[in-house]
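Continuing the series of single-chain predictions for the mutant panel. This is the parent chain; the variants come on the following pages.
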Amino acid sequence: QVQLVESGGGLVQPGGSLRLSCAASGSIFSINTMAWYRQAPGKQRELVGTITSGGSTNYADFVKGRFTTSRDNAKNTVYLQMNSLKPEDTAVYYCNALIVDYSDKYRLQRAYWGQGTQVTVSS
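Parent structure:
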């Protein structure tokens, strides 16, 4: 069984910073692309950024220059450093990872989601 567990959310003032973490655990054979999504109340879930196993990153335009994602492959963990936060960044943030489970007979890549962590930007 593979699990993703996020941490690091909270309340921050506009202009502040937060760092989210997402750790994968379980019977992991390999982890490919990892990603961060967010969902604000009443809105659809949207992609924030991605990072490949080799470290290549891509970001949504609305976070470019403010957010940075990184990963520690030895710890099966992905991070999201969020700087210059704005009230419109308020959302539940989810991590997503494409993982091959050891217990999968065919070693198929599947998408796993974390439980989400709340980020609130408010004065």
